Amino acid sequence: MAVNFQQLPHSGIRSLIPYKPGKSIEELAREKGIKSNDIIKMASNENPLGCSPLALAELKNISPHLLATYPSPINHPLMSKLANKLKIDAEQLFLSNGSDYIYTILLNCFVLHQDKHIITHEYAFSTYAIQAQTLNIPVHTVADNPNWQVNIDSLIRACNLKTGIIFLANPNNPTGILINPKEIKRLLENIPESTLLVIDEAYYEYAATQLNCNSIDWLAEHPNLVITRTFSKIYGLAGIRLGYAISHPSIIELMRRIQLPFMVNQVALTTAHAALEDEEFIQQSLQLNSEGMRQIQAGFTELNLPYLPSACNFLTFDCKQDGISLYNYLLDRGIIVRPLHPYKMNNYLRVTVGTKEQNNRFLDELSNYYK
Ligand SMILES: *Cc1c(COP(=O)(O)O)cnc(C)c1O
């Protein structure tokens, strides 16, 4: 081979360490020869109840015509239904193929080719930095507090007129930790109006009761705010890839300008539209999650394993040794959790809250390991 293709991309891509998703059930089944039905995945914060039965019924009813035609997300009834639910105008709403793709759109719009950088923090969700690096955009990372809390003062200090976007997840993944909304408000009040603050609220529905406020209310005063949410987590629809951004109409208009026309598909639109009606499923999911959260926390306490306070549907716990050995032990027994080495949290594993039976199986194997 005369050309080394590895050397062709820019330095951002050459040095990129791609996002490593949680191992899939199929992958583990193949690797270990375990039957798929005997494997439980507690690695990617998906809903253990699956998805809303209403959404599933609608999906089964999809017509050949719908599948044969290009989608028109902006004209789909999901737009107005979701906007009504959020109490915003449809002009403030942007649908996307997963909320993760929204970050690339925002980077393209507001940072790329402008001698600007982004800011994120030490234990922030890694996708923001990965997507920026893919575009060769400089990433400034501020240290978190020793209690894993985001240091808002450090963010304010790091921010200047060349800061295109600050990325925060609230609550954060992989820690599960909630940022006090007052602190986010203070951040908004102390950054340039030309710097976008993106708050990734993938776990909003799980955290809503603890949050006690709605970031959408800040939009009127702070048009540089972008909020992202998703159907992947509590709605149990990670497979259809649908997320959305809420912001000022002028920001949304720019995002629509550069979006590929058919990025959100018919199946996603149809299914999400039905899922929005199923409040019962959401309430069931919340209930299952808070019960499972207590169950797993009690198990950790019994085993003397410290865990981080989580406002999400997962718990990040301290294995008191490198987590890989326990991770592999659980894999051998058909339980997939998530190692946090990409975050340099080598002694920690992240486990998604499952059904009562799944949590029991996880806790049983955990106590066997520590025996
Ligand atoms: C799961 C998750 C998302 C959701 O991404 P989608 O692309 O909408 O599936 C976004 N941010 C964080 C922090 C997450 O954990």
Automatic annotation (TrEMBL):
Residues modified to N6-(pyridoxal phosphate)lysine: 233
Matching Pfam families: Aminotran_1_2
Functional pathway: Amino-acid biosynthesis; L-histidine biosynthesis; L-histidine from 5-phospho-alpha-D-ribose 1-diphosphate: step 7/9
Domain Aminotransferase class I/classII large: 38-365
Statement: the UniProt record of this protein carries the keyword Phosphoprotein: no
Record's catalysed reaction(s): L-histidinol phosphate + 2-oxoglutarate = 3-(imidazol-4-yl)-2-oxopropyl phosphate + L-glutamate
GO MF term set: histidinol-phosphate transaminase activity; pyridoxal phosphate binding
EC number(s) recorded for this UniProt protein: 2.6.1.9
InterPro entries recorded: Aminotransferase_I/II_large, HisP_aminotrans, HistidinolP_aminotransfase, PyrdxlP-dep_Trfase, PyrdxlP-dep_Trfase_major, PyrdxlP-dep_Trfase_small
Cofactor(s) listed: pyridoxal 5'-phosphate
Keyword field: Amino-acid biosynthesis, Aminotransferase, Histidine biosynthesis, Pyridoxal phosphate, Transferase
Top-level taxon of the source organism: Bacteria
Enzyme class (EC, first level): transferase
Assembly information from the UniProt record: Homodimer.
Family named by the database record: Belongs to the class-II pyridoxal-phosphate-dependent aminotransferase family. Histidinol-phosphate aminotransferase subfamily.
Record-given protein name: Histidinol-phosphate aminotransferase
Gene: hisC2
